[in-house]
Amino acid sequence: QAYGLPVFVENDANLGALAEQWWGAGRNGKDLTYIKIGTSIGSGHIINGELYRGAGGTAGEIGHLPLDPAGPRCSCGLTGCLSTFIGSEVLVARAQAELGGASARGASIEGASDLVTAARGGDERARRIIAEAGGRLGVAVASLMNVLNPAVVVLGGEIAGAGDLLLDPVRAAVRARSLATTFEGT
Predict the structure, then answer these.
(1) What single string gives the DSSP state of each residue in 144-180?
(2) Neighbours of 70 (CB within 10 A)
């Protein structure tokens, strides 16, 4: 009412997909996927130029793709969900346990940005944690590529700040697990 404009509330990953379509890597694209790696992991999908919400409005909850039926219990009640392996809280907890709470250079690992900084700074243990997360994420991305075949996949969230340390294992997993025709010409 204050601005005389309509207000819409939307899921953060869906808003990320719209932002990428309007202003970012998928500018004016008709088919793209945006994956947000935060506390958990979610995705937003633009299909034929429109935001896809699914029949019940919950499309894009890729954090609950089952990766390992014997894996850890997820907050949703299932086991081995993607988010139990690569959500930022999980990665930070793992880094704190494996690195004793600090990087090789003594910097404290308090959050995802600290883990990324340690990895980018050359800490091999932090780099391994990021790379393993990228490999698991790549399995999920490959599934999305095979099912939806988006023209563009964009990663967001603090962990994505690791750049190629995360992206190289994602790309390797996508190439190993996707139909060749899903990423031809990209």
Answers:
(1) HHHHH--SEEEEESGGGGGTHHHHHHHHHHHHHHS-G
(2) 6
The closest alpha carbon to 20, from 34, 30, 9, 31, belongs to 34
Residues paired with residue 47 on neighbouring β-strands, in sequence order: 50
Considering the entire predicted model, what is its pTM?
0.90
Cα–Cα separations (whole angstroms), residue 30 to 46, 130, 132, 150, 173? 6, 31, 31, 9, 25
Task: Give the count of beta carbons closer than 10 Å to the beta carbon of residue 138.
Answer: 24
List CB contacts of 67: < 8 A, sequence separation 6 or more.
80, 81, 82, 85, 136, 139, 140
C-alpha–C-alpha distance, residues 88 and 111, integer Å: 8
Q: What is the pLDDT of residue 41?
A: 94
